[in-house]
């Protein structure tokens, strides 16, 4: 089938998303409406995903794609522009020095191997003088963590760091490949789950917002996979 035509509304949407890198669902819906109104293109309020599919069909030859993902904190949808041509770490390599990249990789290790999908700033800063590429002073590492947060690779809450939604959407394949034992997809929404609860019997994992939604109506929460009683506290 022929791809639907790109209009100026599509182009504007793409430009704004490119400048943000990632956008929350409600913002994307507002932008969709705004672009259609400015360029007098037919606007269907429930057709954002279709509108994005049109953009994606034209981005394909450029190895780019707008992907939808979920914030692990509040379960809200997000849209991010992803480069499919280069693995994400190589993409970061053009922005960061080798030892900064190594600090990021090691931080990712801590997050991925943790119980709850977070790494404490203390543990991360202890890595600074163990870097193989070039050691970092604690102050430099602290500054670097701020930069990773500003650039939406990490997010921080009370001195604990986790992967930003943008990072999870962009790096899903990299993470699944590099952390085959700990990376898992959410049993409910099927996207990558970093902060998750896991069934003790069968290892099925779910995002916290998905756990909340899934068990909302159940008096005795049971695993959707193996039906044993869900052992974690429902958030």
UniProtKB/TrEMBL annotation:
Protein name as annotated: Non-structural maintenance of chromosomes element 1 homolog
Subcellular location: Chromosome, Telomere; Nucleus
Keyword tRNA-binding appears in the UniProt entry: no
Xref: PROSITE patterns: ZF_RING_2
Pfam families, A to Z: SMC_Nse1 (PF07574), zf-RING-like (PF08746)
Record-linked InterPro entries: Nse1, Nse1_RING_C4HC3-type, WH-like_DNA-bd_sf, Znf_RING, Znf_RING/FYVE/PHD
Enzyme Commission identifier(s): 2.3.2.27
Family label: Belongs to the NSE1 family.
Domain RING-type: residue ranges: 186-227
GO molecular function, one term: ubiquitin protein ligase activity
């Amino acid at each position: 089938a022929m791809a639907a035509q790109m209009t100026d509304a599509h182009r504007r949407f793409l430009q704004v998303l490119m400048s943000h890198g990632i956008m929350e669902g409600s913002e994307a819906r507002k932008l969709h409406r705004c672009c259609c109104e400015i360029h007098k293109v037919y606007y269907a309020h429930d057709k954002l995903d279709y509108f994005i599919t049109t953009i994606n069909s034209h981005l394909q030859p450029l190895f780019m794609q707008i992907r939808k993902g979920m914030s692990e904190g509040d379960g809200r949808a997000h849209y991010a522009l992803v480069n499919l041509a280069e693995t994400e770490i190589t993409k970061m390599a053009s922005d960061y020095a080798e030892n900064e990249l190594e600090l990021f990789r090691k931080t990712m290790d801590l997050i991925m191997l943790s119980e709850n999908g977070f790494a404490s700033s203390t543990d991360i800063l202890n890595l600074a003088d163990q870097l193989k590429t070039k050691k970092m002073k604690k102050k430099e590492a602290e500054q670097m963590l701020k930069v990773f947060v500003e650039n939406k690779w990490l997010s921080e809450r009370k001195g604990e760091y986790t992967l930003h939604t943008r990072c999870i959407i962009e790096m899903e394949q990299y993470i699944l490949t590099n952390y085959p034992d700990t990376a898992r997809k959410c049993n409910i929404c099927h996207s990558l789950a970093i902060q998750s609860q896991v069934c003790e019997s069968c290892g099925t994992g779910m995002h916290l917002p998905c756990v909340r939604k899934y068990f909302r109506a159940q008096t005795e929460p049971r695993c959707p996979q193996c039906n044993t009683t869900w052992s974690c506290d429902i958030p």
